[in-house]
Amino acid sequence: MFFDLSMLAFESQHAIWLRTIKLCAGGTAGDREARLMVDEKVSAAMQATGKLMAGAHPGSVVKAYRRKVRANVRRLSKP
Q1: What is the pTM of this model?
Q2: Of 22, 35, 44, 78, which has the fewest CB atoms closer than 10 Å, so is most exposed?
Q3: Residue 40 to residue 35: CA distance in whole angstroms
Q4: Region 55-69 average pLDDT
């Protein structure tokens, strides 16, 4: 799990950097990104809570977060 947590930290920083650029650009795309970011965070927290309450291993929650972060990096990296 240490590796997945370390990679999550690294990948999250990349997503944060890309997202900050988009937010700073402003306009419609920045507004849309801000709303999407909040919606994604609330949804991910609810899913993680549900998994943990159902008895899932914390490592599975970390892996799920990594998938979402990598998807955001791919999406935000497109011009």
Answers
A1: 0.88
A2: 78
A3: 9
A4: 97
